[in-house]
Amino acid sequence: MSDKVDFQKKLEEGLEEISSVNVTAQFARVLLPLEEIQDMIGTITETAMVALNEATNVNTALCPFGGPPFSKGGILSPWDLARAENFTSYPIRDNLGQPTTYGRLNLEDGETYMARIHDKTGVCSDPSDCCIFGLTAAGICESDLYENCDSGQNCIYPCEAIQVAIVEGYKATVSLLEQELRMTADLGVVCPVDSTCPTPQFQALYSNSTLVDMIQNYKHDIIKTKDLLVSLAETSVGDAMLEVSWILIHGDGRLSISPLERWISLDN
């Protein structure tokens, strides 16, 4: 009978086992996979970025683009890329055969900007019907073979396909980066600069806390509960449980017993 109702012993053994649990270490094992997921999320844009830089670094006689590579951190504002020159080394179509600035114009978005700085003029495949529009007499469109041009039937654009590839590559890279930033913001291992963590969409559907924050909050609740349980024996609840244990072991089945009776029983 005493073995079955020895609350004090069972309570102490249970609390000792609870006290030995390292909650922080256990939760670290939960957070580790999330950190690994974040590492994988961080590589989402890598392949697209490599392809974009390969296209923008084409440097041939007809398409002398070149220039420093774009990075993930600066792809959303490509006009901030540090360059050795302020203007392109090649003329731009519909720009009277002049280069264009690498600076941002008229609050361009990234796609418009990338299209403009890579919109190189064509070259003449024949001297007739080929010219820079606006630089020749009215009604005349003639230029030397292989000269720059932006008008006429014999003006061909060997860099046009590269420009299209650059613009499409830029759009794909930005789209992937935005997806990466959203996933990062919702996961919460790190919070991207200038981002809301978690995203408003995540908050509307799930919680105002990131996944990591939810786990951390849960960890704090578990630690608090653990501490409360470990200190249970030192509280009035613990005293009450010990009193019940004494009554069941030494009492006569009554729900209460006087302090005098308890003292006499202990003295005997």
Q: What order do the helices and strands come in, and which of them pair?
A:
Blueprint: H1 7-19, H2 23-41, H3 46-56, H4 110-117, E1 122-124, E2 148-149, E3 155-156, H5 160-187, H6 200-205, H7 211-230, H8 236-250, H9 259-267
Antiparallel strand pairs: 1-2, 1-3
What are the defining features of this structure?
268 residues, 3-stranded antiparallel β-sheet, 9 helices, mainly alpha, 48% helix, 2 domains
Task: Describe the global form.
Answer: rod-shaped
The major beta sheet can be summarized as: 3 strands, antiparallel
Strand residues, percent? under 5%
Helix content: 40-55%
Rounded to an integer, what's the Rg over CA atoms?
Answer: 37 Å
Strand order of the largest sheet: 2-1-3
Instruction: Write down the secondary-structure element order.
Output: HHHHEEEHHHHH
Cα(first) to Cα(last) distance is: 20 Å
Total DSSP E strands: 3
- How would you state the average pLDDT, rounded? 83
Domain tally = 2
Helix count from the secondary structure assignment? 9
Give unreliable regions as ranges: 260-264
| Backbone structural class | mainly alpha
Short account of what is shown:
The protein has 268 residues and is mostly helical. It has helices at 7-19, 23-41, 46-56, 110-117, 160-187, 200-205, 211-230, 236-250, 259-267, and strands at 122-124, 148-149, 155-156. It is 48% helix and 3% strand.
